[in-house]
Write a structure and sequence with these properties.
This is Phosphate acetyltransferase. The protein is α/β, with parallel strands linked by helices. Helix content is 41%, strand content 16%.
Length: 350
């Protein structure tokens, strides 16, 4: 929810409780109070505000006028400079505090330096309970060489000690397609082993890709977990984190040339994924084409709304050239889904 900063002259400070009550009654959270004009508030007046201050409401003072202050705040950039590591760390910790800490995520390629560092950060910040699939001594050696501090509760599992536990279950999941000898051989791949753990609900997700291709990462999921019953395909998404909003791009890795029905399914999957991460989705269909694209989008919208049963989502057709972040992704397919996290429908339309 968006919070608001209130700018008022010092003389109005005695009405603080009225401002606060009015904002609360209208469901408007106050992020802070800025007192304007040259003279600082009287200490006795500030004493009157102690209850608000104790409840966490920041109160600042500036010699600028109310109008000048409002202009300055309106033009204030909320981007974090690359060298402001302290604020970046605060933002990261705030985000991690709103994530379910019970998520158990396993990271494959457990002895790869970037994977080890990511696991250490996620574990220490409470983003997820991480499991590294790797030889413990290899992880410790890399961590020591890279000066990475491993949290004491970070779990490291030696694949050689658990691999045999999944042979019989893998044969059962792929009944008629492989025997125990073949299953044992495939389980040498930590992607396959990790996917088996995911298929059996022993973990909530897996992270791969540092040294594996997309195909090698998703193929075991197709074979062992399979497509959800209500869908005919599997799609992928990218989360693009911008200063004021989040874009979810789909599908950029799995389905290279979807038709209208498949793109409608991808749109629903992308929106559902966005909702799972707390994003209120607005769906935009983007395309390079111009001539008959209107007819394609009409068919697409009809198919999607028919599946949903009710018009839950808001659709737009957007020129791919009009969205700056997309220009940087030449690998985007000709027809794609863009899920927007916007403050209003007007923002999405623009």
């Amino acid at each position: 929810m968006q919070a608001y900063c209130l700018c008022v002259p010092v003389a109005y400070l005695l009405n603080l409780h009225k401002f606060h009550s009015l904002a609360t009654s209208n469901g408007i959270p106050l992020a802070g109070l800025v007192l304007t004009e040259h003279h600082e508030p009287n200490p006795l007046v500030l004493e009157f505000c102690q209850s608000a201050i104790k409840n966490g409401l920041p109160i600042l003072h500036t010699p600028l006028s109310t109008f000048e202050t409002a202009q300055q705040l309106a033009n204030l950039s909320n981007e974090i400079p690359v060298d402001d590591t302290e604020r970046a760390d605060q933002v990261t910790r705030f985000v991690s505090s709103h994530i379910d800490p019970e998520w158990l995520t396993q990271m494959l390629n457990g002895d790869e330096p970037r994977t080890i560092q990511a696991a250490a950060i996620c574990q220490s910040r409470g983003i997820a309970q991480c499991v590294l699939l790797a030889k413990p001594e290899a992880v410790l050696e890399v961590a020591k060489a890279r000066n990475i501090e491993l949290p004491v509760d970070l779990e490291i599992i030696d694949p050689d000690l658990i691999r045999e536990n999944y042979v019989t279950q893998m044969v059962e999941l792929r009944k008629g397609k492989l025997n125990e000898l073949q299953a044992r051989e495939q389980l040498q791949d930590t992607v396959v082993l990790g996917t088996m753990m995911l298929a059996l609900d022993q973990v909530d997700g897996l992270v791969s890709g540092a040294i594996h291709t997309t195909a090698n990462t998703v193929r075991p999921a197709f074979q062992l977990i399979k497509t959800a019953p209500e869908y005919s395909l599997v799609s992928s998404i990218f989360f693009m984190l911008l200063p004021d909003e989040v874009y979810v791009y789909g599908d950029c890795a799995i389905n290279p040339d979807p038709d209208a029905e498949q793109l409608a399914e991808i749109a629903i999957q992308s929106a559902d994924s966005a909702k799972a991460f707390g994003i209120d989705p607005r769906i935009a269909m983007i395309s390079y084409s111009t001539g008959t694209s209107g007819a394609v989008l009409a068919a697409l919208k009809h198919q999607t709304l028919k599946w949903l049963g009710v018009p839950m989502y808001l659709f737009f057709q957007i020129s791919i050239q009009a969205i700056p972040p997309i220009k940087q992704f030449s690998a985007l397919p000709m027809s794609s889904v863009l899920v927007l996290c916007c403050k209003s429908e007007q923002q999405a339309a623009h």
